[in-house]
Write a structure and sequence with these properties.
Elements lengths: L7 E8 L2 E5 L8 H9 L8 E3 L3 E3 L2 E8 L6
């Protein structure tokens, strides 16, 4: 028998050299909406972009990558 389960979403960001795991505020939100939600708490996320989804440890991981301090 085949059993389908929904994977939980995990959002990651780098802050001061450490990886911070952010919980999913609402599974109905798009990853961009989650980024907008957390940019109110973490100013570095206001210019961040979202990396493609990666499935690891039975979760869908999205990484918020800051473009602050990079050229080009």
């Amino acid at each position: 028998m085949l059993l389908a389960t929904q994977l939980k979403r995990v959002f990651l960001m780098e802050d001061k050299g450490q990886t911070v795991e952010l919980s999913d505020p609402d599974p109905a939100l798009s990853p961009q909406a989650v980024l907008n939600h957390y940019s109110n708490l973490y100013a570095i996320l206001t210019t961040a972009k979202i990396s493609p989804a990666d499935i690891r440890d039975d979760a869908i991981q999205y990484k918020f990558e800051s473009v602050m301090g990079t050229k080009g």
